[in-house]
Write a structure and sequence with these properties.
Number of strands: 4
Largest sheet: 2 strands, antiparallel
Structural class: mainly alpha
Mean pLDDT: 88
Strand content: under 5%
């Protein structure tokens, strides 16, 4: 009972922090920069426990956090022009340093060090940084607005999918989805979770398409960016790639021989355990939304 209470309190605080941070751009940037740093720090600590693997935890973490801030600046400042891309130069210099430093470190397996170092940047830093692409939206008249709904909807869909899949899978689950990696997941649960997400996506789409004549008077939460079918498509994308993200992290933990990635969130494990689904869902959502603009 005590563990349940701790888990419930942690879950409520976690959801509240995520939801409220998307009400203000500065809060979003600061919170997810912190999340990026904590997640990379956790990841580097885990891989450094493997035999013959030694990567620079501090520089890898600082690089990932800097990349997040750089993306936030790049996406939010429409007036910077092409010159604002210079903000990425320090990050590129850091990546080059991490590669060259292995020439002088005399480690037993420098290739593994390179691979794990770059994996941390691509698997963690890049997806979190792409939240800024969802959060900052350019308008036809050249302004950049903070979009609460798009990035928040990704997490709402993930939470609804997890809850729906758990409930339906517990009641009806018979056929294993991926028994080699995650024996607890079922096809019935996955389909049930997807149906719940589609219902929520339809509701968000209906609210998002309430007609507002003047953009300046439009509520900050709903911006009329997507049609209802497009919202349904986004929901399905998040479900599919969120499930894959969960399985990828499960494979990562099985490879390392651990149950939880950490213990920073009481009752919920580590940062990777809480954000595993989003690490594939966020990039997939960005690709989906950019694909819509091509047609």
């Amino acid at each position: 009972m005590k563990n349940f209470v701790i888990r419930a309190i942690t879950g409520i605080l976690f959801v509240a922090a995520i939801v409220t941070c998307f009400l203000d751009p500065r809060a979003m940037v600061l919170l997810f920069a912190l999340v990026t740093g904590l997640t990379i720090w956790e990841y580097t600590g885990l891989v450094n426990e493997r035999e013959n693997v030694t990567i620079n935890r501090f520089i890898s973490t600082v690089a990932g956090v800097y990349f997040f801030f750089a993306m936030a600046y790049f996406c939010s400042d429409v007036y910077g022009g092409s010159a604002k891309s210079v903000v990425f130069i320090p990050y590129l210099v850091t990546i080059i340093y991490l590669l060259i430093s292995e020439l002088y470190a005399r480690q037993n397996d420098p290739v593994s060090n390179w691979a794990y170092t770059m994996l941390g940047q691509m698997y963690i830093a890049l997806p979190f940084s792409l939240l800024n692409v969802l959060a900052f939206t350019a308008t036809p008249d050249g302004r950049v607005l903070f979009n609460t709904l798009l990035p928040l909807s990704v997490f709402i869909f993930l939470w609804v999918n997890d809850t729906g899949a758990y409930c339906v899978g517990s009641l009806l689950g018979r056929h294993k989805l991926f028994p080699r990696i995650s024996p607890g997941k079922s096809w019935e649960g996955s389909v049930g979770g997807a149906l719940f997400v589609l219902l929520v996506a339809y509701g968000i789409g209906w609210l998002d398409n309430i007609q507002v004549s003047d953009l300046d008077r439009m509520p900050f939460l709903f911006m009329g960016m997507l049609s209802i079918p497009e919202w349904l498509g986004l929901g399905l994308i998040v479900v599919v790639f969120g499930t894959w993200g969960d399985l990828v992290e499960s494979l990562f933990k099985r490879t390392l021989g651990i149950k939880d990635s950490g213990s920073i969130l009481p009752g919920h494990g580590g940062m990777l355990d809480r954000f595993d689904s989003s690490l594939l869902a966020i990039p997939a959502a960005v690709i989906y939304l950019y694909t819509l603009t091509l047609f």
